[in-house]
Design goal:
- Keywords: DNA-binding, Transcription, Transcription regulation.
- One of its GO terms (molecular function) is DNA binding.
- By secondary structure, the protein is an alpha+beta fold.
- It has 2 domains: 3-172, Beta-Lactamase (2-Layer Sandwich), CATH 3.30.450.80; 175-234, Arc Repressor Mutant, subunit A (Orthogonal Bundle), CATH 1.10.10.10.
- It has 12 helices and 5 strands.
- A hairpin with a 5-residue loop joins strand 4 and strand 5 (134-141).
Length: 240
């Protein structure tokens, strides 16, 4: 996708998004069109949130990367999060430079992680929705953006985040019907169980478990199990 074309039509495009999955597909195309690897749209964390998995709205970060990031507590004392909480200005990043002041253990861990997945450079765009809720969008890969690109992507990010906030609010007021089997599979997934383990516990085939979880993912407008669990917890569909 050409950035100029996306910039010119983003208002119409954003207004037409009806599910999180539609936003996901758009962001994936935009990221690839920019020659980048990954994107993340998240709410800015408070002191109560220390995991990226609990703050992300949509992302194409590999699930194993998110799990590794959270298991090593890399959000705690993150210089990226600190900067976005202090300022609303977008900024380019280089994973090595921005982590210069971190303790040596976390510094090397986060640098190695982002390099492993081809996300050593990119930019973050702090945004907010119509109600004042703060969030951010990041696009990562192997390069930084020009000032003109930054301005256009920030405009896109602002409209995308506001639309996602509207969709999330609509979800909270729209009842979603789940079968008892779907909820059982979802709860066990949230507890860290794999499909094979869930199948044994519920006396189902592994294929049936995957079908139930796939149905939940679709109903919630998500793309992965992790996203579905986070969404279900946020909407109080399940408790763990």
């Amino acid at each position: 996708m050409e950035l100029e074309a996306q910039f010119n039509r983003i208002e119409e495009a954003a207004a037409g998004f009806n599910t999180h999955y539609e936003v996901f597909k758009y962001m994936k195309g935009l990221t690839q069109g920019l020659g980048m690897t990954a994107f993340l749209i998240m709410t800015l964390p408070t002191v109560d949130f220390v995991e990226i998995g609990a703050t992300k709205i949509i992302t194409n970060w590999p699930a194993e990367m998110v799990d590794y990031y959270d298991s090593h507590n890399l959000m705690v004392d993150s210089p990226v999060i600190r900067r976005m909480l202090r300022s609303t200005s977008p900024f380019n990043y280089d994973v090595e430079a921005i982590n210069t002041d971190r303790g040596e253990g976390k510094k090397s861990t986060v640098i190695d992680l982002f390099r492993r997945y081809g996300m050593e450079k990119g930019a973050y765009f702090p945004v907010h929705d119509a109600a004042g809720g703060r969030g951010a969008m990041s696009i990562s890969g192997s390069r930084n953006f020009t000032m003109l690109e930054m301005a256009k992507i920030l405009f896109i990010a602002t409209l995308i985040y506001d639309r996602l906030s509207q969709l999330t609010l609509n979800e909270k007021h729209k009842p979603i019907a789940f079968t008892s089997s779907e909820l059982d599979c979802l709860r066990l997934t949230a507890g860290g169980r794999k499909s094979s383990e869930i199948a044994k516990l519920l006396d189902l085939s592994e294929n049936a478990v995957n079908n139930h979880i796939g149905s939940v993912i679709k109903k919630l407008g998500c793309t992965t199990r992790t996203q579905a669990v986070v969404s279900a917890l946020r909407l109080n569909i399940i408790r763990v």
